[in-house]
Design a protein that fits this description.
Elements lengths: L3 E5 L5 H10 L3 E5 L3 H8 L10 H10 L3 E4 L7 E4 L14 H10 L8 E4 L7 H10 L11 E4 L9 H7 L2 E5 L2 H11 L7 E5 H32 L3 H8 L22 H8 L5 H24 L8 E5 L14 H11 L3 E5 L13 H5 L4 E4 L11 H7 L4 E4 L6 H7 L2 E4 L5
Parallel strand pairs: 1-2, 1-4, 2-3, 4-5, 5-6, 7-8, 9-10, 9-11, 11-12, 12-13
Antiparallel strand pairs: 6-7
Helix pairs in contact: 1-3, 4-5, 8-9, 8-10, 8-11, 10-11, 11-12
Bound molecules: nicotinamide-adenine-dinucleotide.
């Protein structure tokens, strides 16, 4: 008989994972508290944008290998992929995990496997998940196998990377880790390394923290180079000619559900030690304010209504995810300071100031601000856009355009991270 998998949380991680298990011989129930997600899924449709996911979901739903449900059901394997946001005070908000684990309690039986996939503070599996599961009076580690199996996928390449990436799986004991490894081997082609749950949780957190710190270094350079009258982009390009130097690109800040969140879980656990981690977070969080300051400096103070047209507000290029996006923060800062803002982003379906007619969006604007380097933005007609604008200031936060090309159209071009 086919093994049953029940996946709780059908977002960017849970749904592709569910579809891959279903495509590899498991009988999968996908559970979400969002009715829209479930209704669409049961029609073979998805409400997020991720390359190749729609075809795969359509296929496995059509084959009856994946179905959606608002509640969990009996299964052999339970996988939890619910959100783990931070609170206003930058502490981990684990309420979604707590609810999801409680939700599966009535369906657990001896021999079942429970896997936490949500990015979590160190100790979550061992302390929080295990203690909730203990309400069943089953022996966790012997009757129920428990572990942590984090994701390290790149949005836009999730299906490919879920299969090809190496994985680190932490078990509450060795047998749990081995059982979980065995489950993921059904579709993972990368190496699977097993360890304890605390180590696996920490590995996931420091991967994202490593990237956040490196981006913060580039962003700090961008502030320094701007002040000293040069371009951080040039400085970084030349420094990277060194065989052992590889500085990342600066930008308007760091967003997403991972890099902008996970380092805080380390800070929360080790406030007196995680100094660089915290500083990096604060540096990256400051970047939208830096972009705003640049706009403010270039603002015509004699004009009453200043309008800013923003190109792109997702947290990175060519995706639809706006969570923690620095451009969303920039929009908020601009509006709080009485700038009129309209957003053009073909990846975004709904947003307060969204106007997906680029000419209406840019009409009477003083500033055109490139927030995200979506590939499609290369093909916009910038001459026609300039014709509907009131002023000609072009701010590039990503070094996406060539200054000479943009200025030859008639704009005045400013690059974030440089004095130009
Ligand atoms: N998105 C990424 O690239 C990425 C990468 C690695 C790790 N992660 C981690 O994976 C986890 C999930 O992230 P995501 O991006 O898929 O989130 P998401 O917000 O896209 O999806 C989470 C889903 O869980 C549902 N949900 C909430 N509570 C539930 C419950 N009790 N039962 C069933 N469903 C419930 C929500 O309705 C939502 O659809 C997070 O911890 C995140 O940090 C995400």
């Amino acid at each position: 008989m086919r093994k049953k998998v029940c996946i709780l949380g059908l977002g960017y991680i849970g749904l592709p994972t569910a579809a891959l298990f279903a495509n590899n011989g498991y009988d999968v129930t996908g559970v979400d508290i969002n009715q829209d997600v479930i209704e669409n899924l049961n029609e073979g449709k998805i409400i997020i944008k991720e390359p190749n996911l729609d075809e795969l979901v359509k296929k496995v739903v059509g084959q009856n290998m994946l179905k959606g449900s608002l509640t969990p059901s009996e299964s052999d394997i339970f996988i939890i992929c619910v959100p783990t946001p931070i609170t206003k005070d930058k502490n981990a908000d684990l309420k979604y995990i707590v609810k999801a684990v409680n939700d599966i309690l009535p369906y657990l039986k001896v021999g079942d496997i429970v896997v936490l996939e949500s990015t979590s503070p160190v100790g979550t599996t061992k302390n929080i998940v295990k203690s909730i599961l203990e309400k069943t009076n089953l022996d966790i580690g012997n009757d129920i196998y428990l572990g942590y199996s984090p994701e390290r996928v790149l949005p836009g390449q999730i299906i490919k990377e879920l299969v090809s990436n190496h994985r680190v799986i932490g078990g509450i004991n060795e047998i749990s880790a081995e059982k979980i490894k065995n489950v993921y081997e059904s579709f993972v082609e990368g190496e699977i390394y097993t360890t304890d749950t605390d180590t696996a949780e920490m590995v996931k957190l420091i991967e994202n923290t490593f990237r956040d710190i490196n981006i913060a270094f580039a962003n700090e350079l961008s502030l320094i180079c701007d002040k000293l009258g040069m371009s951080a982009w040039d400085v970084i390009e030349y420094a990277n000619k060194h065989p052992r130097v590889n500085i990342l690109n600066p930008g308007p800040g760091v967003g997403g559900h991972c890099l902008a969140v996970d380092p805080w879980f380390i800070v929360e656990s080790s406030k007196d030690l995680a100094n660089i981690v915290k500083l990096a977070r604060n540096t990256n969080d400051y970047m939208p304010t830096y972009v705003f300051n640049k706009i403010q400096k270039l603002t015509d103070k004699t004009k009453k209504n200043i309008k800013v047209c923003i190109l792109g507000a997702t947290y990175k290029k060519d995706i639809d995810d706006m969570r923690e996006s620095p451009i969303v923060h920039l929009i908020d800062i601009l509006r709080k300071n009485n700038y009129e803002v309209e957003l053009y982003d073909p990846y975004v379906k709904n947003y307060e100031v969204l106007n997906n007619n680029i000419y209406e969006c840019a009409k009477n604007s003083d500033f055109l601000v490139l927030g995200v380097d979506h590939t499609v933005f290369k093909d916009l007609d910038y001459k026609a856009i300039l014709e509907v604008m009131d002023n000609n200031i072009f701010i590039d936060t990503r070094n996406f355009f060539n200054k000479d090309n943009i200025e030859s159209i008639g704009y005045k071009y400013y690059l974030i991270g440089s004095s130009i």
